Amino acid sequence: MKACVVGYGAMGKVISSMLGDELALNVAVECETKTLNDAKIDFDCIIDFSNPANLDMIIDYVSKTKKPVVFATTGYTEEQIKKIEELSKIAPVLRSANFSLGVILLNRLVKEVTPILKDSFDIEVVEAHHNKKVDSPSGTAKMLLKSITDETGYKVVAGRDGYSPRSKNEVGIHSLRGGTIVGEHEVLFCGEDEILSLKHSAHSKKIFAVGAIKAAKWLTSQAPGYYDMEDVLFGGK
């Protein structure tokens, strides 16, 4: 596989380094190739670790070439997500809030545990990241919350302040920001006299690159469609 990496920020540099000979080119304003339409080298798959502002450029290029694309960028609006879903009708598209293999397994465990414990346990989600992260909750926390609310229908409550009695039909989300924390996510199932904690801690950005490369290699052999990391690990649609 030869990959084109869109974006040359922290993650773009990490994944480019890890791709080694499998890197075809980088596309970013600070690189020689500024846009996908400027690319003079052929490649098998696009891995996007940039920002939502590049989405229209990627869609324009993929609409013409039908190249598989892995969307590892977060922060898309609902309208942009609909555009990505529409693109998947003509090209293989994979999008995930997190590419850590451990996080995908964590999400799978949450889906398995929630229906078993929801009636007798309260559920809370805690996420922590470095002090430069500007959005909250994290995309991964939103993914975990969706797995919980899809099963329970619970209302999501962001933090608590002052007089705020907890209702049974809610799930709390709490965001911490400090230091150089790469990423921590914990789902707490709190029952009477016992707590079940499902937690994942990231110690390096490399884990996201490993997952994204695995996803790209898998995606190159898939038909047009909308995929996620669970398809990669547990079987495609």
TrEMBL record:
Its EC number is 1.17.1.8. Its main location: cytoplasm. Keywords: Amino-acid biosynthesis, Cytoplasm, Diaminopimelate biosynthesis, Lysine biosynthesis, NAD, NADP, Oxidoreductase. It is found in: Cytoplasm. One of its GO terms (cellular component) is cytosol. SUPFAM superfamilies: Glyceraldehyde-3-phosphate dehydrogenase-like, C-terminal domain (SSF55347), NAD(P)-binding Rossmann-fold domains (SSF51735). NAD(+) binds at A72, T73, T74, S96, A97, N98, F99. The active site is at H129 (proton donor/acceptor), K133 (proton donor). It catalyses: (S)-2,3,4,5-tetrahydrodipicolinate + NAD(+) + H2O = (2S,4S)-4-hydroxy-2,3,4,5-tetrahydrodipicolinate + NADH + H(+); (S)-2,3,4,5-tetrahydrodipicolinate + NADP(+) + H2O = (2S,4S)-4-hydroxy-2,3,4,5-tetrahydrodipicolinate + NADPH + H(+). (S)-2,3,4,5-tetrahydrodipicolinate binds at H130, G139, T140. Residues 5-99 form the Dihydrodipicolinate reductase N-terminal domain. One of its GO terms (biological process) is lysine biosynthetic process via diaminopimelate. InterPro entries: DapB_C, DapB_N, DapB_N_CS, DHDPR_bac, NAD(P)-bd_dom_sf. Residues 102-233 form the Dihydrodipicolinate reductase C-terminal domain. Pathway: Amino-acid biosynthesis; L-lysine biosynthesis via DAP pathway; (S)-tetrahydrodipicolinate from L-aspartate: step 4/4. One of its GO terms (molecular function) is NADP binding. Catalyzes the conversion of 4-hydroxy-tetrahydrodipicolinate (HTPA) to tetrahydrodipicolinate. Belongs to the DapB family. Homotetramer. This is 4-hydroxy-tetrahydrodipicolinate reductase. It comes from Anaeroplasma bactoclasticum. The gene is dapB.
